[in-house]
Design goal:
The protein has 204 residues and is mainly alpha-helical. It has three domains: 66 residues; 74 residues, 434 Repressor (Amino-terminal Domain), CATH 1.10.260; 44 residues, no CATH class. The chain is built from twelve helices and no strands. Helix 1 runs parallel beside helix 10, helix 3 packs across helix 5 and helix 6 packs across helix 7. It is globular, with a radius of gyration of 21 Å. The protein starts with a helix and ends with a helix. The C terminus is likely disordered.
Length: 204
């Protein structure tokens, strides 16, 4: 049984403090909303930044998350709303108008439609992505963040820079100041790989 949200958040806060990371960057409400389809208000409430969580019911939860997921993916892809709507209509074997109503959160999808939507958007949790209570959904994402920061139970996975150093026989790798987030480590590792590759080409 996984630990509750409060415990995960406490361990994450501890890890952020230990690594001198930017809390606002790690617990970015907008980014968490994009990855969980929870509203920013729900996330702020669960993180203790607002006094009371928003009212919740299973039907409203599902319709809200379908809408939020669709809007997030649409903004990220830059595609036209009508184009995506038609693709979903074809995938669900429903009319474009019904698909539009589903994506706007105005209609409640049935179980087969919800399963098809999860597959269409490629969410790992399947229908649970839409149906899990907000604390469970956020806890799942925070546990993933904790693992990325090397604070998961059972030991941390090597970060991008450690893997880079191992591949190239680097004995010492000293980073001054605040520790980098996994995303920034990955970007730095890619840049260093590029520099080394360029040097190898020059030597030939």
């Amino acid at each position: 049984m996984s630990e509750p949200l409060s415990s995960t958040l406490a361990r994450l806060e501890e890890r952020i403090a230990e690594a001198r990371l930017d809390r606002a960057e790690i617990l970015d409400v907008r980014a968490l909303s994009a990855r969980t389809a929870l509203t920013e208000g729900e996330i702020r409430a669960l993180l203790g930044e607002e006094a009371r969580p928003v009212a919740d019911d299973i039907e409203g939860r599902i319709r809200r998350r379908v809408r939020t997921l669709h809007e997030t993916r649409l903004a990220a892809s830059g595609r036209k709303r009508g184009e995506v709507c038609k693709e979903i209509a074809d995938a669900l074997s429903i009319s474009p108008e019904w698909a539009r109503q589903l994506l706007l959160g105005k209609k409640m999808p049935n179980v087969p439609d919800l399963t098809a939507l999860a597959a269409f958007f490629g969410v790992e949790q399947g229908t649970g992505f839409f149906t899990d209570p907000a604390p469970i959904a956020l806890n799942r994402e925070l546990r993933r963040l904790l693992a990325d920061l090397g604070g998961a139970e059972g030991g941390a996975e090597e970060g991008p820079l450690v893997r880079f150093a191992t591949r190239h026989g680097v004995v010492t790798l000293a980073l001054r100041g605040r520790q980098l987030t996994p995303r920034k480590q990955e970007a730095l590792a890619v840049m260093l790989e590029g520099l080394l590759s360029g040097g190898e080409e020059t030597d030939r």
